[in-house]
Amino acid sequence: xxxxxxxxxxxxxxxxxxxxxxxxxxxxxxxxxxxxxxxxxxxxxxxxxxxxxxxxxxxxxxxxxxxxxxxxxxxxxxxxxxxxxxxxxxxxxxxxxxxxxxxxxxxxxxxxxxxxxxxxxxxxxxxxxxxxxxxxxxxxxxxxxxxxxxxxxxxxxxxxxxxxxxxxxxxxxxxxxxxxxxxxxxxxxxxxxxxxxxxxxxxxxxxxxxxxxxxxxxxxxxxxxxxxxxxxxxxxxxxxxxxxxxxxxxxxxxxxxxxxxxxxxxxxxxxxxxxxxxxxxxxxxxxxxxxxxxxxxxxxxxxxxxxxxxxxxxxxxxxxxxxxxxxxxxxxxx
Length: 334
Hints:
The chain is an alpha/beta fold.
Protein backbone atom coordinates (compact mmCIF):
# COMPACT_ATOMS: atom_id res chain seq x y z
CA UNK A 1 0.00 0.00 0.00
CA UNK A 2 1.25 3.54 -0.74
CA UNK A 3 2.47 5.57 2.19
CA UNK A 4 0.02 8.04 3.68
CA UNK A 5 1.17 11.41 2.31
CA UNK A 6 -1.24 13.52 4.33
CA UNK A 7 0.30 16.13 6.63
CA UNK A 8 1.01 15.00 10.19
CA UNK A 9 -0.59 16.96 13.02
CA UNK A 10 0.29 16.19 16.64
CA UNK A 11 -2.16 17.08 19.41
CA UNK A 12 -1.06 17.61 23.01
CA UNK A 13 -4.40 16.65 24.64
CA UNK A 14 -7.72 15.09 23.58
CA UNK A 15 -10.04 17.19 21.39
CA UNK A 16 -13.78 17.23 20.88
CA UNK A 17 -14.75 14.40 18.57
CA UNK A 18 -16.11 16.80 15.93
CA UNK A 19 -12.74 18.57 15.74
CA UNK A 20 -10.89 15.27 15.43
CA UNK A 21 -13.23 14.15 12.65
CA UNK A 22 -12.62 17.33 10.66
CA UNK A 23 -8.86 17.14 11.12
CA UNK A 24 -8.64 13.46 10.15
CA UNK A 25 -10.28 14.11 6.78
CA UNK A 26 -7.09 15.78 5.59
CA UNK A 27 -4.36 14.88 8.07
CA UNK A 28 -2.76 12.08 9.98
CA UNK A 29 -3.44 12.82 13.63
CA UNK A 30 -1.41 11.63 16.61
CA UNK A 31 -2.31 12.33 20.23
CA UNK A 32 0.94 12.44 22.16
CA UNK A 33 1.33 10.09 25.10
CA UNK A 34 3.81 12.43 26.78
CA UNK A 35 2.61 16.07 26.88
CA UNK A 36 5.95 17.45 28.05
CA UNK A 37 8.27 19.43 25.82
CA UNK A 38 10.56 16.44 25.45
CA UNK A 39 7.65 14.15 24.65
CA UNK A 40 6.19 16.56 22.12
CA UNK A 41 9.53 16.96 20.35
CA UNK A 42 9.85 13.19 20.06
CA UNK A 43 6.31 12.77 18.72
CA UNK A 44 6.24 15.84 16.47
CA UNK A 45 9.73 15.74 14.97
CA UNK A 46 8.23 15.26 11.48
CA UNK A 47 4.94 17.09 12.05
CA UNK A 48 3.70 19.91 9.86
CA UNK A 49 1.28 21.05 12.56
CA UNK A 50 1.03 20.96 16.36
CA UNK A 51 -2.18 21.69 18.21
CA UNK A 52 -1.53 22.72 21.80
CA UNK A 53 -4.19 22.26 24.45
CA UNK A 54 -2.93 22.95 27.94
CA UNK A 55 0.64 21.74 28.34
CA UNK A 56 3.34 22.28 27.21
CA UNK A 57 4.24 25.80 26.08
CA UNK A 58 4.89 26.30 22.40
CA UNK A 59 8.46 27.35 23.17
CA UNK A 60 11.23 28.39 20.82
CA UNK A 61 13.20 25.21 21.58
CA UNK A 62 10.21 22.99 20.83
CA UNK A 63 9.43 24.69 17.54
CA UNK A 64 13.10 24.74 16.49
CA UNK A 65 13.30 20.98 17.04
CA UNK A 66 10.35 20.29 14.71
CA UNK A 67 12.00 21.10 11.39
CA UNK A 68 8.94 20.58 9.16
CA UNK A 69 6.55 22.61 11.28
CA UNK A 70 4.32 25.05 9.38
CA UNK A 71 1.56 25.87 11.85
CA UNK A 72 0.99 25.97 15.60
CA UNK A 73 -2.60 25.96 16.80
CA UNK A 74 -3.68 27.12 20.25
CA UNK A 75 -6.84 25.43 21.53
CA UNK A 76 -8.38 28.51 23.08
CA UNK A 77 -8.09 32.26 23.09
CA UNK A 78 -5.05 33.28 25.16
CA UNK A 79 -1.65 33.27 23.52
CA UNK A 80 0.65 33.78 26.51
CA UNK A 81 1.77 30.13 26.23
CA UNK A 82 3.06 30.63 22.66
CA UNK A 83 6.43 32.20 21.86
CA UNK A 84 5.10 34.28 19.00
CA UNK A 85 8.37 36.08 18.15
CA UNK A 86 10.12 32.71 17.87
CA UNK A 87 7.36 31.31 15.66
CA UNK A 88 7.59 34.35 13.41
CA UNK A 89 11.37 34.07 13.19
CA UNK A 90 11.04 30.39 12.25
CA UNK A 91 8.34 31.07 9.65
CA UNK A 92 5.64 29.17 11.57
CA UNK A 93 2.05 30.41 11.47
CA UNK A 94 0.25 30.78 14.80
CA UNK A 95 -3.52 30.41 14.88
CA UNK A 96 -6.07 30.20 17.68
CA UNK A 97 -9.83 30.39 18.33
CA UNK A 98 -10.79 33.93 19.39
CA UNK A 99 -14.33 34.30 20.64
CA UNK A 100 -14.86 30.55 20.93
CA UNK A 101 -15.35 30.52 24.71
CA UNK A 102 -16.63 34.07 25.21
CA UNK A 103 -20.11 33.07 26.30
CA UNK A 104 -18.77 30.47 28.70
CA UNK A 105 -16.32 32.85 30.37
CA UNK A 106 -18.85 35.66 30.58
CA UNK A 107 -21.37 33.36 32.28
CA UNK A 108 -18.70 32.17 34.71
CA UNK A 109 -17.74 35.75 35.59
CA UNK A 110 -21.37 36.57 36.31
CA UNK A 111 -21.66 33.41 38.39
CA UNK A 112 -18.66 34.43 40.49
CA UNK A 113 -20.14 37.90 41.03
CA UNK A 114 -23.40 36.37 42.19
CA UNK A 115 -21.62 33.80 44.36
CA UNK A 116 -19.72 36.61 46.09
CA UNK A 117 -22.69 38.89 46.65
CA UNK A 118 -25.01 36.07 47.76
CA UNK A 119 -22.30 34.36 49.87
CA UNK A 120 -23.59 31.15 48.35
CA UNK A 121 -20.64 28.96 49.38
CA UNK A 122 -21.11 29.92 53.04
CA UNK A 123 -24.89 29.54 52.86
CA UNK A 124 -24.55 26.14 51.19
CA UNK A 125 -22.22 24.85 53.91
CA UNK A 126 -24.44 26.16 56.70
CA UNK A 127 -27.60 24.73 55.17
CA UNK A 128 -26.00 21.29 54.78
CA UNK A 129 -25.05 21.48 58.45
CA UNK A 130 -28.64 22.25 59.46
CA UNK A 131 -27.97 25.94 60.20
CA UNK A 132 -30.84 28.01 58.81
CA UNK A 133 -29.83 31.23 60.56
CA UNK A 134 -28.89 32.79 57.21
CA UNK A 135 -32.61 33.47 56.65
CA UNK A 136 -32.58 36.07 59.39
CA UNK A 137 -33.17 39.75 58.60
CA UNK A 138 -31.96 40.37 55.08
CA UNK A 139 -29.25 37.77 55.16
CA UNK A 140 -27.02 39.71 57.57
CA UNK A 141 -26.18 36.53 59.44
CA UNK A 142 -25.00 34.97 56.19
CA UNK A 143 -22.22 37.54 55.98
CA UNK A 144 -23.69 40.49 54.09
CA UNK A 145 -25.89 39.01 51.37
CA UNK A 146 -26.50 41.80 48.82
CA UNK A 147 -27.86 42.45 45.33
CA UNK A 148 -26.03 43.33 42.12
CA UNK A 149 -28.92 45.42 40.82
CA UNK A 150 -28.18 49.10 41.32
CA UNK A 151 -24.46 48.50 41.81
CA UNK A 152 -21.68 49.73 39.51
CA UNK A 153 -19.63 47.21 37.56
CA UNK A 154 -16.19 48.02 36.20
CA UNK A 155 -14.96 45.96 33.25
CA UNK A 156 -11.27 45.87 32.38
CA UNK A 157 -11.16 44.84 28.73
CA UNK A 158 -14.42 45.02 26.78
CA UNK A 159 -13.66 42.64 23.94
CA UNK A 160 -15.55 39.46 23.05
CA UNK A 161 -15.99 38.44 26.69
CA UNK A 162 -16.28 41.86 28.29
CA UNK A 163 -19.07 42.95 25.98
CA UNK A 164 -21.10 39.89 26.97
CA UNK A 165 -20.51 40.61 30.65
CA UNK A 166 -21.66 44.17 30.00
CA UNK A 167 -24.88 42.89 28.46
CA UNK A 168 -25.54 40.51 31.36
CA UNK A 169 -24.85 43.21 33.93
CA UNK A 170 -27.11 45.72 32.22
CA UNK A 171 -29.90 43.17 32.10
CA UNK A 172 -29.89 42.80 35.89
CA UNK A 173 -29.81 46.51 36.52
CA UNK A 174 -26.15 47.35 37.03
CA UNK A 175 -24.46 50.53 35.88
CA UNK A 176 -21.56 49.46 33.66
CA UNK A 177 -18.25 51.29 33.21
CA UNK A 178 -15.34 49.99 31.15
CA UNK A 179 -11.68 50.68 30.56
CA UNK A 180 -10.08 49.42 27.35
CA UNK A 181 -7.38 51.53 25.74
CA UNK A 182 -7.79 49.70 22.42
CA UNK A 183 -11.54 50.26 21.97
CA UNK A 184 -12.81 53.73 20.95
CA UNK A 185 -15.24 55.42 23.32
CA UNK A 186 -18.16 55.25 20.89
CA UNK A 187 -17.63 51.51 20.47
CA UNK A 188 -17.48 51.00 24.24
CA UNK A 189 -20.88 52.67 24.47
CA UNK A 190 -22.22 50.41 21.72
CA UNK A 191 -21.10 47.50 23.83
CA UNK A 192 -23.25 48.67 26.71
CA UNK A 193 -20.77 50.48 28.94
CA UNK A 194 -19.66 54.02 29.68
CA UNK A 195 -15.98 54.46 28.79
CA UNK A 196 -13.44 55.48 31.43
CA UNK A 197 -10.06 56.84 30.38
CA UNK A 198 -7.80 54.86 32.70
CA UNK A 199 -7.73 51.99 35.18
CA UNK A 200 -6.93 54.47 37.94
CA UNK A 201 -10.06 56.45 37.07
CA UNK A 202 -12.21 53.32 36.86
CA UNK A 203 -11.50 51.44 40.08
CA UNK A 204 -12.62 54.09 42.64
CA UNK A 205 -16.07 54.21 41.04
CA UNK A 206 -17.04 50.54 41.07
CA UNK A 207 -18.64 48.12 43.49
CA UNK A 208 -17.49 45.14 41.41
CA UNK A 209 -14.38 44.92 39.23
CA UNK A 210 -14.01 42.16 36.63
CA UNK A 211 -10.96 41.50 34.43
CA UNK A 212 -11.20 40.36 30.81
CA UNK A 213 -7.82 41.25 29.39
CA UNK A 214 -5.01 39.13 27.93
CA UNK A 215 -1.76 38.72 29.81
CA UNK A 216 0.90 40.92 28.26
CA UNK A 217 3.89 42.82 29.67
CA UNK A 218 1.57 45.81 29.86
CA UNK A 219 -1.17 44.03 31.86
CA UNK A 220 1.03 41.93 34.16
CA UNK A 221 0.16 42.78 37.79
CA UNK A 222 -2.10 45.63 36.71
CA UNK A 223 -4.26 44.63 39.69
CA UNK A 224 -1.79 45.45 42.44
CA UNK A 225 -1.57 47.13 45.83
CA UNK A 226 -1.86 50.58 44.27
CA UNK A 227 -4.93 49.89 42.12
CA UNK A 228 -6.61 47.87 44.86
CA UNK A 229 -5.96 50.71 47.30
CA UNK A 230 -8.00 53.02 45.07
CA UNK A 231 -11.09 50.81 45.27
CA UNK A 232 -14.05 51.31 47.57
CA UNK A 233 -13.85 49.49 50.88
CA UNK A 234 -15.76 46.23 50.58
CA UNK A 235 -15.70 46.09 46.76
CA UNK A 236 -15.71 42.76 44.94
CA UNK A 237 -12.94 41.61 42.60
CA UNK A 238 -13.42 38.94 39.89
CA UNK A 239 -10.78 37.51 37.55
CA UNK A 240 -11.48 35.00 34.79
CA UNK A 241 -8.74 36.22 32.44
CA UNK A 242 -5.16 35.29 33.39
CA UNK A 243 -3.59 34.89 36.82
CA UNK A 244 -0.63 37.09 35.96
CA UNK A 245 -2.93 40.09 35.63
CA UNK A 246 -3.13 40.15 39.44
CA UNK A 247 -0.52 40.43 42.15
CA UNK A 248 -1.85 37.62 44.34
CA UNK A 249 -0.13 38.82 47.48
CA UNK A 250 -1.76 42.24 47.07
CA UNK A 251 -5.16 40.63 46.48
CA UNK A 252 -4.74 38.49 49.61
CA UNK A 253 -3.82 41.51 51.71
CA UNK A 254 -6.74 43.53 50.37
CA UNK A 255 -9.11 40.68 51.25
CA UNK A 256 -7.77 40.27 54.77
CA UNK A 257 -7.73 44.02 55.50
CA UNK A 258 -11.30 44.56 54.35
CA UNK A 259 -10.39 46.69 51.34
CA UNK A 260 -11.96 43.93 49.25
CA UNK A 261 -15.16 42.47 50.62
CA UNK A 262 -14.93 39.35 48.46
CA UNK A 263 -13.27 37.90 45.38
CA UNK A 264 -14.14 35.37 42.71
CA UNK A 265 -10.95 33.92 41.21
CA UNK A 266 -10.72 31.40 38.38
CA UNK A 267 -7.06 31.98 37.50
CA UNK A 268 -3.84 32.06 39.50
CA UNK A 269 -0.29 33.26 38.94
CA UNK A 270 0.97 29.68 39.18
CA UNK A 271 -1.29 26.87 37.99
CA UNK A 272 -2.14 24.53 39.54
CA UNK A 273 -1.90 26.83 42.53
CA UNK A 274 -0.25 25.44 45.65
CA UNK A 275 -2.53 23.97 48.30
CA UNK A 276 -0.95 26.31 50.83
CA UNK A 277 -1.84 29.40 48.81
CA UNK A 278 -3.35 31.55 51.60
CA UNK A 279 -6.11 32.83 49.30
CA UNK A 280 -7.63 29.34 49.37
CA UNK A 281 -8.25 29.59 53.10
CA UNK A 282 -10.20 32.85 53.03
CA UNK A 283 -13.96 32.55 53.66
CA UNK A 284 -14.73 35.57 51.45
CA UNK A 285 -13.22 34.04 48.30
CA UNK A 286 -14.87 31.79 45.72
CA UNK A 287 -12.34 29.92 43.57
CA UNK A 288 -12.35 27.66 40.55
CA UNK A 289 -9.54 25.91 38.67
CA UNK A 290 -9.25 27.90 35.40
CA UNK A 291 -12.48 26.37 34.11
CA UNK A 292 -14.41 29.51 33.12
CA UNK A 293 -14.07 28.69 29.44
CA UNK A 294 -14.54 24.94 29.79
CA UNK A 295 -18.03 23.95 28.72
CA UNK A 296 -19.22 21.32 26.26
CA UNK A 297 -20.19 24.03 23.79
CA UNK A 298 -16.96 25.99 24.14
CA UNK A 299 -14.77 22.89 23.87
CA UNK A 300 -16.43 21.97 20.60
CA UNK A 301 -16.20 25.48 19.20
CA UNK A 302 -12.56 25.91 20.22
CA UNK A 303 -11.57 22.61 18.63
CA UNK A 304 -13.51 23.04 15.40
CA UNK A 305 -12.40 26.66 14.98
CA UNK A 306 -8.68 26.14 15.51
CA UNK A 307 -8.64 22.96 13.41
CA UNK A 308 -10.22 24.87 10.54
CA UNK A 309 -7.54 27.55 10.80
CA UNK A 310 -4.74 24.97 10.84
CA UNK A 311 -6.12 23.18 7.80
CA UNK A 312 -6.15 26.41 5.81
CA UNK A 313 -2.44 26.87 6.47
CA UNK A 314 -1.64 23.27 5.57
CA UNK A 315 -3.55 23.67 2.28
CA UNK A 316 -1.53 26.76 1.47
CA UNK A 317 -4.45 29.10 2.15
CA UNK A 318 -4.13 32.17 4.35
CA UNK A 319 -6.06 31.52 7.59
CA UNK A 320 -8.83 33.85 8.74
CA UNK A 321 -7.09 34.43 12.08
CA UNK A 322 -3.32 34.68 11.70
CA UNK A 323 -1.62 35.92 14.86
CA UNK A 324 1.72 36.65 13.16
CA UNK A 325 0.89 37.90 9.63
CA UNK A 326 4.55 38.67 8.89
CA UNK A 327 5.15 34.95 8.26
CA UNK A 328 2.71 34.65 5.41
CA UNK A 329 4.86 35.99 2.55
CA UNK A 330 7.35 33.23 3.37
CA UNK A 331 4.95 30.51 4.42
CA UNK A 332 2.50 31.03 1.57
CA UNK A 333 5.23 30.16 -0.93
CA UNK A 334 6.36 26.95 0.79
